[in-house]
Sphingosine-1-phosphate lyase
Amino acid sequence: MEAAAELALRLRAAANGRLARCEPLALVAAPLLALLVARLVHAAASAVADRGLVAIAIAAVKLLPGVSGYIAAEKKKVVDKMQSGGTSSKNNRRAELPTIGLGEEVIKDLETLKAKDVDWQGKCSGTVYIAGSESEGHFELINKAYSMFSHTNPLHQDVFKSVAHMEAEVVAMTAALLGSKEKSSGGQICGNMTSGGTESILLAVKTSRDYMRSKKGITKPEMIIAESAHSAYDKAAEYFNIKVRRVPVNKEFLADVKGFKRCINGNTIMMVGSAPGFPHGLIDPIEELGELASRYDICLHVDLCLGGFVLPFACKLGYPIPPFDFSVKGVTSISSDVHKYGLAPKGTSVVLYRNHEIRKHQFVAVTEWTGGLYISPTIAGSRPGGLIAGAWAAMMSLGLNGYLDSTSRIMEVSKKIQRGIDEIPGLFVIGKPDMTVVAFGSDVVDIFEVNDIMSSKGWHLNALQRPNSLHICVTLQHTTVYGEFLKDLQDSVNTVKANPGPISGGMAPIYGAAGKMPDRGTVKELLVEFMDSSC
């Protein structure tokens, strides 16, 4: 010990002797300069990690004289192509109120405008989930329910008690489908209705952020998502200043649990699992993600926007569905759309939380407003009570037996479509679909050219990337036309095989080029330009 102490004193004396020969200003400036250099290196490393060397190099090239102008001109050409005649429609829009009101004659104008919509019945992937004509049956019922309460607003609970009552029942009934009655759920499942899946996701992310800030003091939040997770999570990240850790899917196109684990750090607030994911209709390993969330004490949101009103009934019908709801330990929130397979009017979704302690962080309370004390549960203040009434009417009118019947029909047709696609030479189904979304690609033909031919036949499918593929989200609208779909798909593949190359007016070249472009920033700019010129 004495020898060690003596050595330390000698080292100290030597260091002081050397430093004594330095200028005092240099002694102060040196560590500050080192700190500045370290910060610059860290910032550069973070930029490379977030954007990649290729993107940074391309951004530098754009600064060269003439390059930015050329790129802008090329972007305009692509945007004009994507518009496909939308400019003339935009130029015909009314920009001022009519001098004299139209009165009831406005209904004729509405009918004229509506007649310009495409023939969507049975031809769209997802989009409209209710079967039949919009003027009869279930359509007519929810329209009537909406009209009865179109003047109501749940913001005024003291006035429209009926709407508050219906919202509470819609939330409770949805929660019961998703594990609230299971002992493992904890018995405190709670939530609210929202305007759709995106708002439900936004609220779940915002709530998780604020909950983890309160619980762990996290001020630079990060969330981990699979690359198959819905784009609403990126929207939430931009809105709420959260860093996204995006993990590639595994060979089965599912969330890679090991990849998620590698991304967890002290700033992680949540992970996201989908049941199923929008692109391929596959259910992520929710149980494994739940174990991970529990081990690291972080939030886990399960996206059941598509599956919330299918999977519970598919389980009852005997389909092999892996665990996905609040019965799974570690799940802290769930989003489930009523306006999809719940067969409710558009604009109705539910966000649920495992307990009230978490949900409290969803609310915004204002105490210093001259307009009085204010509290709001969701993003919107005023909300349409008619939509709540429509959702309540849909669920009550269908009941357990109605949902079992509709689920049985769409699951059966989904399997028939899956088998039919497998039998078309040149096509393959992506993964093993768990539900009603069937994604397919091709190693033989350009799948986007196939999509263009299908579009010319009146079909509206979803174009996907990584890999290039299409999907159809099967609804009750398809239960009587799936044979026609498969025939048209077979014919379209044959047409592309016989005559490869883009058709006039087709979008295949744009989709294909966008998927191959290494500069994702330019692709993003194209999307922004397109949206800005469309609305």
The chain has a mean pLDDT of 90. The chain has 19 helices and 13 strands. Residues 385-422 form the longest helix (38 residues).
